Each structure stands twice: as structure tokens, then as C-alpha cells.
Amino acid sequence: MQLVLLDWIVIAAYGVVTAVVGLWFTRKAGGSVEDFFVAGRSLPWWIAGTSIAATWFATDAPLVTSSLVRTNGIFGNWLWWYEAAGIMMLVFFYARMWRRARIITDAEFIELRYSGRPAALLRGFSAVYQGVLKNCVVMGWVMLAMIKFSQVLLGWEPEVTLVVCIALAMVYTVASGLWGVVVTDLLQFTTGILGTVILAGIVLHQLGGPAEMANQIANISDNPATLDIIPNPAHLSSLEAVSFFLLIFVLWTRSGQGDGYIAQRLFATKDEKQSLLGALWFSFAGTVLMTWPWIIVGLGSLLIFPLALAGPELAADPELAYPMMIGELMPAGLKGLMVASFLAAFMSTMDTHLCWGASYLVNDVYRRFVRKDATERHYVVASRGAVLVLVTLAAITAWQMESIERGWIYVIEITAGLAVVWLMRWYWWRINAWAEISAILASFVFANGFLWIRVLEGTGLLGGSSLAAMQTFYSGEYDFIRAIAILVACSVIWVIVALTTKPDSESRLVAFYERVRPGGWWGPIAKIVPGGSPDPAAWKRWMAWALGVIFLWSSLLGIGYLVTGRTLSGVLLLIVAALGAVATVKVALQATEDHAPSTG
After folding, report:
1. Residue 309's CB: how many other CB atoms inside 10 A?
2. How many angstroms separate the Cα of 9 from the Cα of each of 22, 309, 335, 339, 421?
3. Which of 43, 119, 498, 542 has the highest Cβ tally under 10 A?
4. 370: burial class by Cβ within 10 Å (0-12, 13-18, 19+)?
5. 3-class SS at 403?
6. For 6-56, how does the pLDDT look when each residue is reduced to its tens digit (9 = 90+)?
7. Which residues contact 243 (CB under 8 A, 6 or more apart)?
8. Rounded CA gap, 269 and 259, in Å?
9. Dist CA 72 CA 53 (whole Å)
10. C-alpha distances in angstroms, 120 versus 106, 437, 533?
11. Alpha helices, H only, 285-362
12. What are the two backbone dihedrals, phi and then psi, of residue 346, each rounded to the nearest 5 degrees?
């Protein structure tokens, strides 16, 4: 136990404030399912965008980020930095269409876009697949991060950590729905950023500043890639180089349309302008603002806890480095603040995923297939019950997990096969429910190949060199090669299915086109419906996307070069980032002014 009374006072004060703020919104959430899950569609951009960023700042992120720095080098964080390109697609191509759809969940989108029994089947299946399977894996690794954090700093057993964290996450998610979630997210985001920046500042002060820290690491590290911010092929094996450069395409397409809790926040905004600006603010806060304090701590851990001298626990599990740095460097009081910031990160992610997952179970399963005619208050009660079910399943998942990073990679793989069909279903009229069903099933089968290997081993149907080849392909060394293979194979499958099955009914396609106005390849339908898409021309949006990517990645790299002692490169890149930011915001505002928003 490394905390003193002052730390516990700070933690308790934070917990009371958070609970009071969350419970204050109980009345706002109790009127209807729309109030509970999308805050009555009344959020301004800065609340919506901050709430998404707060969810990204989960307890797992600092632990995995510092672990990647220790095991791979700074460039290992391209495992999630690549998503910046996809997030910018969300900003300029999809955010406004999500708001125009006027739905509660992205699973509900399925029956807005497709028709008949295949659409109903896909909606129910997607709600369970996304809201339970994928969602519980994500919540499981978030809980696992808190278990590791609490073992180091609090000396708690895993069972105690799970009970405490579950209680904290449920107390206001159950009561106040999305309103409580997004308002407390503002507090949690501020607390989380403050705590991590203070710790990063202490690390830099302790080690003599950015340049001195980088010099010391260069002198002691056996890994020449430790300080590489951009993957350097000279420091990687050919397989590692190919893997990381392929990853940009997988994650770009995977995150391009935005889904789940990101889409939920965009549904909840006041209008299309607020939706676009919220997505833009999140892209900067999530990708750039939160990143470097975690990396600084990871770099500092290489000097405070050198790889050659790391104890057996840290050597076996580098994800423990971040909480060990807190225990080693933070003084009393500030250590309590860091624990509070981790609780903030935990709750901001858990409450979001619980609220989002419950929205699937109630809106897309219970209300759609079980009780279609109950009162709104009945569905609110059911929503609170769904939260309890999900948090229990997430705790069971966390109990079975060992590595947060492996959880990240598994989610990348089970969603990789859906990436292109999710992007194209907005823009190509010929895609139908069967195409998306085939992509889901194929992605699940390919991503879980390690299970099929065990089955084949047990039955004796596969052996020798064939079994060895499959085992190699499903080893950690081929993670990102496997992700791109899943994406390509599933895309081929769903295109074939789309072209060999009947398109959706004309009436459904017309209704979708009239509401969402997507643009793209809607030739036969666009001829029926007068007027085109209210969005800017495609070339303008691609130009805005390119400016946005320049802004994000220049900001990311510029700060990175500054905090690793490469001042001139850092300053030049930040100048480029500033120019890119001005241009990106100008284009975004012009798009919302030139094309009148729909506030329905």
C-alpha cells in the first residue's frame, strides 16, 4: 500500500464530486429512451467531442502506450496513431450523415438502410456482436488495466478491484444515462489530462529535460528503434516493416465511418454543424493532446526501471511500467490525484461502453424483437437492467484476459473484415444486408483461427506442415499481416455476395436516400429523388481530409520531436501543424455554412 491519508482524501473528494454530478442528471434521463441514450439530441460540439476523447483516454491506454515504448520504441504507438486518417474521414465524410440519419444506435441504421428479414436479422445480430461480444472485450481490457494499476499502487487483489470499479461505473450510468456520462466526462477528461501532464513533467525534470533524457536512453538502450517516431526500415525486420506500413490501411478504413459510442455522440448533437465540429475536436484531443505525456513516462521508465535490471514482474508484464512510475516518482497528494485521474479514465470509458452497449440490447433487441409496445419508462428501466448485465459480462471477460495489447489486436482483427463494407454501404446503392452479414461471419471466422486450430488438432483432421503453417500465421509475429489478409478476403467475399443477391427494395433505398442524402454511387435512386447531397463536392472533402491529416500528424510529430530533444524539427512541424489547423477549421466551418444543416 503506497498511498497516505492525503492521497485518500483527494480520491474520496473526487469520487463524491463525480457521483453528485452524474446523479444530478437522473431526471433528465428518465423521460424516454431518446433522453437516456442520446441526451435528447441537444449536445453542443465541445461536450460531444470531449466525451468521445475522454472515452479514448481509458486506463488501458497509458499502460499499453508505455509498454509499446519499452518493447518496440515510440513508433510502436502507430498501432493506434494510424487511426487519425480514419477519424478525419469521419469528420468530413460521415459525421453529418450520422446526424441526418436521426437514429439512436448504429445498429438501428441497418433497418434504415436495408429491408426485409435479412435486415432484421442483421440488426439483431449486429447489436449482440457489437454491443456484447466486442464491447465486453473492450470493457474487459479496461478493467484488466485497473486490476494491474491497483495491484501496483493499492495492493488490492483483482477481486476487490473489480467489485469497486463495477460499483463506481454503475452508480451514475444506471441512473443518468448519456447526460450523466457526457457531463462527468468533462470532469474526467480534465482530471485525466492534468494528472498525466504532471507525471510527465516530473519525469522530464527528474531526468534533466527532453534532450538529456533522449541522450541517456540512446546510450543505454539495446534497441536502436527506441526513439524512432516514424518506423525506420533500417531498425526493423522486413516482416515488421511490412506489417506496420500495412497497418495504416487497415486502421484508416476500420475507423473511417465511426461507429458505436462515437456515432452515439454524433446522434446526440444539436445539428449537423455541431456533429462535424465535435468530431474535429475529438480528432485532435484523442490523437495528439493525450498521447505524449504517456510516451514520456514510458521513455522515462527505461531509465528508472532499465530493461536489464527490471524485476521479474515488470520483465514478464511491461504494462506494469506506468503505475510503477507513479509509485516511484509522485509525492503524496499528487499520487492521490493520479489515482483519481485513473479512476476518471476508467469511468469515462466504462460508463460510455455500458450506456452504448445497453442501447443496443434495449433499442435493437428488446424493443425491436421482444416488447414492441411498452411505455418509454418501461424501456428506461430495461436500459438500466441491461447496464447491470453488461458490467457483469465485462467483469467475467476481464477475469479471463492477461494482456491489454492482445485485446487491442483481437478487436482490430474481428472488425477488419467489416471496414470497407461499412464505408461503402453509405455510398453504393447495390450493397445489401446479405453482403454485410457475409462480411461479419467471414471476419469472425478468420479472426478466430486459433480456435479452429485447436479443433483441427483435437479431431486429427489437420497435421504436419499444414498445421504448422496455420500456427505460424496465427502467431503474434503476423498480427498485422493477418489483419490486412482478413480485410482483403472479407471484402472479396462481400462484393461477390452483393453482386449475386438481389438489391434492396426500391422503396427502402429511396427512403434512405431522401433522409441521409449520401452522394456517391446512387445512380438509379438519385434519378428518382430530386436534389443531390447537401454535402460539399467529393474533391472538396478529400482536400479537407488531406489538410486535416497534415494538421494531426504534424502536431503529433512536432510535439514528439520537441519532447525527445529534436527542437528544430519539432518547431518546423508545429508551424506546419498550425497552418494546417487554420486551414482545416476554415474548410470545416465553410462546409457547415454553405450547406444548411438539418436539425430534425
Report:
1. 8
2. 20, 35, 11, 11, 50
3. 43
4. exposed
5. coil
6. 888 888 887 777 767 766 766 555 555 555 555 567 778 888 888 888 777
7. 478, 479, 480, 481
8. 15
9. 25
10. 13, 11, 27
11. 291-304, 312-316, 321-329, 334-359
12. -60, -50
